[in-house]
Amino acid sequence: MRTISILLLASALSLAGCSSAAVHGQPDEMTPEFMVPAGSTLVLNQTLQVPAWQDQVYFQDGQTMSWRGVNIYMPHCTMKLTTKKETPQTIQSDTFVVKKSYTELFFMQVQAPEQPRGIQIAAAGWGAAEPIDFETHEGMDYKVMAAVMELHSATQPEVVCMICADWGLPPERPHITMNKIRRALGAVLTLKLAQSSGAQP
Description:
By secondary structure, this protein is mainly beta. It has one helix spanning about 180-185, and strands at about 1-5, 10, 20-25, 25, 40-45, 50, 55-60, 65, 75-80, 90, 95-110, 130-135, 140-150, 160-170, 190. The longest helix has 8 residues, at about 180-185.
């Protein structure tokens, strides 16, 4: 067997033509170019606990979890705080306004055709990861698309953003859709889209 390295490049590449698509003045959520319009809201319907020494909580299939519980091959989101603390942090039920949204394209250098187990990628920080080796006969390029929403709450300014990601093959132009985001968030958070007024600055 030969060893193949996986490297997640966390430098963001803003995609050209990322303005919100619209049909008859209404956002079309199914297009790859769609971005959450500024002024949209994320309504947190329950209190969240962020473990000590962590600065985010993850969501997948309507469940909250730590990074270890996330299936990275399925749509997932994370709500991020400004800092890590030595004691647990609480995010209270609230309405967070989306100040700005954009896409980031993360590259998986090489990925096995079958999902290898035990791979941890950019674990809790969504930052650059060291190469992780595993053995396989063949390899395949993958890409991960992330939708980033910068958030604001007057009562909880430490909550700074929501990041949602999904996998895809390069020829398929991978993207994260509103359906996938809502699937990841479930009933924990409700995404309410504002009327799109064109490209964001």
